[in-house]
Write a structure and sequence with these properties.
By secondary structure, the protein is an alpha+beta fold. It is about 25% helix and about 25% strand. Strands 1, 2, 3, 4, 5, 6, 7, 8, 9 and 19 form a ten-stranded mixed β-sheet that branches. Strands 10, 11, 12, 13, 14, 15, 16, 17 and 18 form a nine-stranded mixed β-sheet that branches. The radius of gyration is 22 Å and the shape is globular. It catalyses: L-isoleucine + 2-oxoglutarate = (S)-3-methyl-2-oxopentanoate + L-glutamate; L-valine + 2-oxoglutarate = 3-methyl-2-oxobutanoate + L-glutamate; L-leucine + 2-oxoglutarate = 4-methyl-2-oxopentanoate + L-glutamate.
Length: about 425
């Protein structure tokens, strides 16, 4: 039986998207077949979620070569490159990308048009049933003023998976990437060239069928908007205090926690407001049994010594309840290439975390995400007690998280050539 399973695994590795999408379910089947948990984890988490991306579509898709551009007649005054002014989501660029879809006609031609507000029917499915998904990526201007995107192909892949989960129309991810690059060229003057600044890219698909009722929408709109943003930490990294939420969960097994869909975010607003009122910055999301998931909208990393004294960088495994973060994936590859400590994806329970802190084995904790890149953690609140987490006050972070922040930044800004960067 084990030989048969191994042969099946080798065949499945050829289809990364199948494993990426159904990895958790397949793991459960193999465990039931008496394979050890550790062996199954080693087999399934030895490759990236984003390896060998398939961005193609079996259905007719829009094509970037058909894209038209209408330039605005009313250019917006650009804000100054001041981190106190150019905050996240505060400003938009002059243009946007828009592509419509209907069940009868398929995709329309992509259009770059002047930024505008939408006129939308009050019955539109996105307004009532949250049938919408989105992405978040960034573009940068490097030392020679060239435009660079960071792993945008991964965002296209993840968006295709989210759209499929909501029965929204499929598309060719490579063609959408080309369209986005065209939009970046049109609005290239909006992309800041100062260190720490970037242009946030927000692709979105919304269901626009003009009828009430929970069902697959017969109409949809794909649009992309751009937002110039300053550094998340204007004066350097800043650690946060997180609250271990034992009464509210972000996502459940079998749900949509592993997809970037709108319905995952609205329910987190009230719990965030509540913990901020008691002195914390974010929630640490867990399941009722203490299984750790995410922090706010970030993936989590624990750098500790195990009970054998070995250093390990541990992050919760992708079990379907956790978003497969692109920065998360990047950090896993960078740290594995270091070959300085074990890098592990596995189930992590809050009891293990508290034990590691209490026994002095926790070296540092941090989160990761597109907006923040790296987010150091200085303390966690759990069961009416505060547990302080080590970090270097001079760095406002742990040594590893500070090193990784510098590494990611060097790659994103073009100071260090890397396969993850695409020059537009």
């Amino acid at each position: 039986m084990k030989i048969l399973i191994a042969q099946l695994l080798n065949q499945l590795v050829l289809s990364q998207c199948v494993i990426a999408q159904y990895r958790y379910q397949i793991i459960q089947i193999f465990i039931l077949r008496s394979m050890s948990v550790s062996k199954v984890q080693k087999l399934f988490f030895r490759f990236s979620y984003y390896k060998n991306l398939d961005l193609t579509s079996p259905y007719p898709s829009f094509q970037a070569r058909d894209m038209t551009t209408t330039h605005t007649m009313h250019y917006i005054t650009k804000p100054p490159c001041d981190p106190k002014i150019m905050t996240f989501g505060a400003f938009h660029t002059d243009h946007m990308l828009e592509i419509d879809w209907t069940e009868k006609m398929g995709w329309s031609r992509p259009q770059i048009i002047p930024f505008k507000s939408f006129s939308i029917h009050p019955f539109a499915a996105c307004l009532h049933y949250a049938i919408e998904c989105f992405e978040g990526a960034k573009a940068y201007k490097g030392p020679n003023k060239t435009i660079r995107t960071f792993r945008l192909d991964c965002n296209m892949y993840r968006m295709k998976q989210s759209a499929k989960r909501l029965s929204l129309p499929d598309f060719d991810g490579a063609e959408l990437q080309k369209c986005i690059e065209g939009l970046l060229k049109v609005d290239q003057d909006w992309i800041p060239d100062r260190p720490g600044f970037s242009c946030y890219i927000r692709p979105t698909i919304i269901a626009t069928e003009e009828a009430l009722g929970v069902r697959a929408s017969s109409r949809a709109k794909l649009f992309v908007v751009l937002c110039p943003v300053g550094p998340y930490f204007p004066s350097g990294l800043k650690p946060v205090r997180v609250f271990c939420n034992t009464t509210t969960i972000r996502s459940a097994p079998g749900g949509v926690g592993g997809y970037k869909v709108a319905g995952n975010y609205a329910p987190t607003v009230m719990p965030l407001k509540e913990v901020q009122q008691i002195g914390f910055h974010q929630n640490l999301w867990m399941l009722p049994d203490g299984l750790v998931q995410e922090m706010g909208v970030c993936n989590l990393f624990f750098f500790w010594k195990n009970k054998q004294g070995e250093r390990e960088l541990v992050t919760p495994q992708l079990d379907g309840t956790i978003l497969p973060g692109i920065v998360r994936d990047s950090l896993l590859e960078l740290t594995r290439d270091m070959k300085q400590f074990k890098v592990i994806e596995k189930k992590v329970y809050i009891q293990e975390v508290i034990e590691a802190i209490s026994e002095g084995r926790m070296i540092e904790m941090f989160g990761s995400g597109t907006a923040v890149s790296i987010q150091p953690i200085e303390a966690i609140g759990y069961n009416d007690k505060i547990y302080e987490v080590k970090y270097d006050p001079k760095l406002n972070a742990g040594e590893l998280s500070h090193q990784l922040f510098d590494m990611i930044t060097e790659i994103q800004t073009g100071n260090k050539p890397h396969k993850w960067i695409n020059v537009v």
